[in-house]
Hints:
Blueprint: H1 7-15, H2 19-40, H3 44-61, H4 72-91, H5 119-128, H6 131-142, H7 147-154, H8 158-183
Helix pairs in contact: 1-2, 2-3, 2-4, 3-4, 6-8, 7-8
Amino acid sequence: MKNVDNEIELLQLVNKGDHSAMKMIYSRYIRALTALCGRYVVDDEDVKDVLQDSFVKIFGTIGSFRYKGEGSLRAWMSRIVVNESLDFLQQKGRMNFVTVPELTDDLVGPEPDTTDLPASVIFGFIRELPDGYRTIFNLFVIERKSHREIASLLNIKESTSASQLHRAKQLLASRIREYLNNTKI
């Protein structure tokens, strides 16, 4: 198949059942969708399972997708991956929202300066968060969902979303401060 740059043409081919067009969509978006899924699901094998389910859903419902301009296909596919990731975490009982009665002094303090911190280190710290913290942090900070939207998505109270975000930020700040203190020369 010739290289198709135009998303509309690619979608038309997929809707006609062209398997090479499906492979092209897969190849074009798999890296970004893997990274997106990996923000929610930590285990690599689980990420593969969620992505497989996501692509089954994507190709099973792509006929109902309505193109709204450049980037709309990726955005639509991303929503499916996020929803499949959240469903996976809920089905596996991994969406635990922990309550920390008292925050220790080492978690409290000003936000550390992350200017010189590699992004990979920050993302690593995010992946180490408990599932509930990580999920709400990603939905709020990365996906820019409100606490009301998060509460609706996860069937929790808005206050639970807000407190989990607060604790996630405190844990991240603590980890970043620890990292910065250990890497000073």
